[in-house]
Structure formats: C-alpha cells, structure tokens
Design goal:
globular, 437 residues, alpha/beta, 2 domains, ten-stranded mixed β-sheet
Length: 437
C-alpha cells in the first residue's frame, strides 16, 4: 500500500509539472477534464487483485515504477526506414513518436478522401464543437485508475471524423512508436473516431517498440458509429518485451450499424486490453476477434464486454491465445442482454493453445441475460497440439518442429485471415512465423 501511495504522489507531482507547461490552455474545458481526472485517479488508486476484474493479473511491476510522462515531441534521430516495415500500403498515416504527433513521418491525404483526419492536439484547436460533444462521453475516467490517468495527461492522439455517406477506399493507420529511450517513461495516447450516417472506413491502430527498454503505454480510444455506418477496427500491438501496455477501446453503435474489431497482442511484459461495445440501437451488429501470442513470462489479459441494450442486435466473438514458455493468458468475456433487448443473437468463443506445460490460461466467459427471447451461446476450450495431427504430418516426412509450426500457424490463421487489409495480414503472418523459429 505504501508503494501505491508513493506512486500516486509521483503522478500528482508530474501533473503539477504538466500544468506549468500549458500556459493559457489551463483555462479551457479540456483542462477542466484533466483536473477532474487527476483527482479521480488519486481517489481510485491502482487496482489490486482484490478487485474481481483484476484478480488474475498482478500489475505490481507497473504500479511500483515511476514512469515519467512525455510532454514534448522529440523524434530522437528516428529515420523513415525505422518505421517502414510497420506502415500499411496506401493508408492515410498518422504517426506518433512517444505519444506525440509527428507531421514529418505522417502522410495525411485525408482531404482527397473527404474526411477529417488529424492529430487530436491540432483538432482541439480547429474543431472543438464535435470533440467537446464526444470526447470523454464513453470513457469518462471513472472506470479505473488507468483511464483516469489517461484523461489527466490527455494531450495528443488521433482524431478522425467521417462525414455522412463517405466510404473511404483506403484505411487510416494510427502508428504509435515507442523510442529506445534510456528513461522509464509513459505515453497516454487518446484517440477519437466519429463515423457519421452510412459512412464506412477501416482503422488500423498499431503500437510498436524500437528497442527493448521499459515504458508504459496507456491508450484510450473512443469510437462513435452512427446509423448505417460500417467500421473495421484492427489493432496490432508488438512492443518491447520489457514494456507494459494498457489499452481501452469503447464503441457506441447506432441503428443498423456494423463494427468489426480484430485485436492482436504480440509484445510486452504485461498487456491488458479492455474492449466495451454498447449496442444501444436496433439492428446493430458487433464482431470482436482477437489473437494473443505469449512466450517467456509474458502476461496477456483480454477483457471484453458486449452490452445488448436494444432488440434485434447480433454479436459474434472469437478470441484465441497461443501460449509458450511460462506465459500466462487471461480471458474475461462478458455479454449483457438487457430486459428490452429481445431477439438478441450472441455467440462467444474462447480457444487457447498451450505449447508448454508451464503456460497457463484463466478463462471466464460470462452471460448475463435479462430478456427471454434470445439466442446466446458461449464456451471456452484449452488444449495442446493434437497428437494425431502431429503424427499424420510426421508420417509424411515432416520433422517435429515444422509439424508444430504448421499446426500453430493454422490455429492463428483462423483469426488473421479475418483481417481485410492484405499488408496487415502479411505483417501478422511474419510475426507468427518468426515466433515459431
């Protein structure tokens, strides 16, 4: 408890330093949100294993460190070729270095695409009306200490606004790059995506580390999808093996809208992903897919919640994990069906492949149903590579290592092949192949 109290005081002192750098900005509504958030952070404190949603994950390695927030942009000698392999072909690219927008590495041709795409820091100056009505509406900072901390140090991230009826041909990529700094630091990206009536787009949110240093990424993304709009949201996280990643994604869906999430967690010592989808209008359809890859002593924790609040909505969920070494996986998937959400059709599946006798998984699929005319299923399976399939491959001259790689790749491919963007699929395939060497 003493360490947590000291840690809270550390972030309060950093917030005081942050305020001093803001000058006139301290009087606007965003800073009122920041001040409220740092107070909530102080009251909440970091979560512990005594709280149900955090009981399987030990975040002491995060709470015991004094991560220095990044306040200013510095490219620190990064070259374009350092980023090249992570960039998506033909995408509108917003690049952030240690959480700060990097105009020289971004290729924003959004004007030709008839959309508004910019850094959040710039958009706060140019387009305050839409941002003020949406920012912090879904993720308020009251959820836990990490969302409060993100709001307290809210400074930059990506902002996308798609006008009604616009269907973007190419994806928009948010590329967050963590530099190989000697300092123990934290970044607090905040992303806001507003998709208006009958619009359509694909977002790719990428987190990469250029070294093996220690840092904390604490990101929050809010997505608002209007009536008839369609969004595919792909998240690819492959950070330093000594880093920590807390990611929060919250989606609010309109009538007859569609949302697809494909989330991939391949890096970091401790990774926690929180995804919440609110189906608050009739006829909406939500799909959540995920794949985690754990090795060594990695911990990957996926928490999802799909809230069916209105009738005639559908949700589909498939989360998989491949765990090797002494890694640990956690899956907690909740589906809520409210009293008025009749004719709900919800399916949830969690599958884990253990490549080592020392790897473990805690799986907790949950259904809470308060309506009586629904179709809901959920389930979890945990196992190792099939001995018969291994024998079949080896009987045809394939060595054991290659046979294991073939079966593991097939297991992962079930999720990877659901990604629509070919260049992202190729990146994911390459990471899987390299991990099996």
């Amino acid at each position: 408890m003493q360490t947590i109290a000291q840690n809270i005081r550390w972030y309060r002192s950093q917030f005081d330093e942050f305020e001093k750098s803001l000058n006139g900005e301290k009087t606007n509504y965003i800073h009122t949100l920041r001040r409220d958030a740092i107070q909530r952070f102080s009251e909440l404190g970091f979560p512990t294993n005594r709280q149900e949603d955090w009981r399987f994950i030990n975040i002491a390695p995060i709470t015991s460190k004094e991560f220095k927030p990044v306040f200013r942009y510095d490219s620190k000698g990064i070259k374009k070729q350092d980023l090249q392999k992570y960039l998506i072909d033909k995408a509108i690219q917003l690049v952030f270095i240690d959480g700060m927008f990097s105009p020289e590495y971004s290729t924003n041709n959004a004007a030709a695409q008839k959309s508004y795409t910019d850094s959040l820091s710039a958009a706060l100056i140019k387009n305050t009306v839409e941002i003020k009505s949406n920012l912090g509406r879904q993720v308020t900072g009251t959820e836990n200490a990490f969302t409060a901390l993100n709001a307290a140090f809210l400074q930059d991230g990506a902002y996308v606004s798609i006008p009604a009826g616009v269907k973007l041909e190419h994806p928009i990529q948010f590329l967050f790059v963590a530099t190989d700094s000697q300092n123990i630091y934290t970044t607090q990206p905040r992303n806001l995506v507003v998709v208006n009536t009958d619009a359509q787009l694909n977002i790719i949110e990428t987190y990469v580390g250029l070294g093996e240093n220690t840092y904390l990424t604490n990101s929050v993304s809010e997505v608002f999808i209007a009536e008839g709009a369609k969004v595919e949201y792909d998240k690819f996280q492959i950070e330093s093996p000594n880093s920590y990643h807390i990611g929060t994604l919250n989606i609010k869906m309109g009538n007859s809208s569609q949302f697809i999430s494909n989330a991939f967690s391949f890096g970091g010592a401790i990774v926690r992903n929180n995804i919440t989808a609110m189906l608050d209008a009739e006829g909406s359809e939500c799909t959540l897919n995920g794949l985690s890859l754990g090795k060594g002593q990695q911990i990957v924790d996926n928490h999802t919640a799909i809230d069916h609040a209105k009738p005639n909505c559908q949700s589909h969920e498939l989360y998989k994990a491949i765990l090797d070494g002494e890694s640990r996986g956690i899956f907690n998937g909740k589906i809520f069906v409210r009293k008025d959400a009749q004719k709900t059709d919800a399916k949830q599946t969690n599958r884990t492949l253990l490549l080592s006798d020392n790897a473990t998984i805690n799986a907790k699929p949950q259904l809470e149903i308060f309506a009586d005319d629904v179709k809901c299923t959920h389930g979890a399976t945990i196992g190792q590579l099939d001995a018969d399939q291994l024998f079949y491959l080896r009987s045809r001259g394939i060595d054991l290592s290659s046979a294991r790689a073939i079966l593991t790749t097939a297991f992962a491919g079930d999720v990877i092949n659901r990604v629509r963007i070919e260049s992202l699929r190729n990146q994911l395939d390459q990471v899987i192949q390299e991990s099996l060497l």
